[in-house]
Structures are given as C-alpha cells and as structure tokens.
Amino acid sequence: MKNTINNTSIHQIKTLLQSLASADKEKTAKFFKTGTGGYAEGDEFIGVPVPVLRKIAREFMHVSLSELQELIQSKINEERLLALIILGSRYKKASTAVKEEIYQFYLTHLQHVNNWNLVDSSAHLIMGAHLINEDKGILLRLAQSDTMWERRIAMVATWYFIRQYDLSWTFKIAEILLNDKHDLIHKAVGWMLREAGKRAPNQLILFLDQHTAFMPRTMLRYAIEKLSVEQRQYYLMRK
Q1: Considering the chain, what is the average pLDDT of its residues?
Q2: Closest CA relative to residue 171, chosen from 143, 129, 145, 150
C-alpha cells in the first residue's frame, strides 16, 4: 500500500508540473545555459516559475524521502528544485533526528544539486543550517572539489552562518576560491562577501585590502556593491 501511495503522489506532482509548463521553456533553458558547452549542458526545463513551485511545495510537504528521491533524481530541473524546496522547508521545523536524516539525504544526492538555482535554494537552508554548530570540515573538502557545483555549495552554505553573525567561514571559503576559474564561483563568492559586509563592514574591508589584487573582477564587483561610491572606485582602481 505504501508504494501505491508513493506512486500516486509522484504521479500527481509530475502531472501538475507538466500542466503548468510554459511555452517559454526554451527561453528558460537558454537563460540557464543548457546548450552544448554551457555550464548546465543537458539540464531540462519545463518553464514552471519558482513562486509556483513554492506554492506546490506547501501542498506536498507530507511526501516521504523515498518520494523526494525520485524527484531529486529527475532529469527535469523544476522537479529537482521542488524536492529541494520541500527539504529546506521541512528541515526548518524538523526534530533533531529528522534534521540529521534530511542532511544525510542531501549529502547522498549532492550530485543532483547541479545548477545554480538548485544550489542557491538549498545549500544554506540545509547544509549551512545543519553545520552551524557542527564540524564544518566538509566545506573545505567541497570548496576544493573538482565539481563546480560542490564548490558553489560550500560558498553558499555559509550564508546561513552570515545570518547568525558568524562570518569566519565565509572569508575562509572565499579565500580558497579566490583563484577559481569559473564565473559562477566568482559571482557566488562576491555575493557572500557582500552579505558578510552588511553585517561587518570592517571585516569585508580588511579582506579586500588583503585580496583585491587577486580577485576576479566579477567577484570584486559583487563584493563591493554595497560600499560607498568612493570605496568602490578605490578598490576598482586597485584592481
């Protein structure tokens, strides 16, 4: 009976998503660079917007991890994203035991968190939240991974720490990724540095004073976005 219920729920989700598919799905796919040689080559989109996915997630918050496993392994981006939205929302209200289960599920399926929308919707809410008072060594391993998405996960996971005014790991991971070659890492690092700077401007300034000369320009531009005009000009000139 359990398998029947699972299959029914999955069928409902997939059918609902297909009914909401947009005629502009090709435009979405192009935006996420799914073509040959793109960072998300082969990823499939059906054009369901994130606000709609969040609404659907609220209706299917009860689904089991076995059901979510089928979604997160899907070739369709929106199905993977829906699974991650549900996981992130569920983690927030879960017991300690269930939080551990969700975290381990996330680690097991990390290979399916393989586009920036998936990373940015889940890394801080699951990995960051789980590691806030735990050993964070896994972030060092991910930051040095050959897989670009894992490096981005390591960086974005620190967003949760930033919100708790714990900034040390943001700067530590940012320093590891200073010489990364991928533009999506430059953006993520700059973004997290900017967020850290909102909480502790002096710490951001110290980091910039030490590393501006080595930072990719995109990373620097993101990082200094909230500084004064004079400060932005100063660091751009130093670059």
Answers
A1: 94
A2: 143
- Which of 139, 144, 142, 130 has its CA nearest to residue 168? 139
pLDDT, tens only, 117-172? 999 999 999 999 999 999 999 999 999 999 999 999 999 999 999 999 999 999 99
Q: Do 29 and 43 contact (CB within 8 A), yes or no?
A: yes
Domain ranges of the chain: 1-121, 135-239
Furthest-apart CA atoms within the chain: distance in Å:
66
Task: Give, to the nearest 10 degrees, the angle between helix 50-59 and helix 77-93.
Answer: 50
pTM of the model: 0.93
The fold of the 135-239 domain, in CATH, is Leucine-rich Repeat Variant (1.25.10)
Give the C-alpha separation, 95 to 117, whole Å.
27
Q: Hey, what are 107's tokens? A: 């680690």
Structure-token match 């996420």, residue found: 32
> What string of DSSP letters covers 22-64?
-TTHHHHHHHTT-STTSTTTT-B-----HHHHHHHHHHTTT--
- Kindly report, residue by residue over 67-90, the tens digit of the pLDDT: 999 999 999 999 999 999 999 999
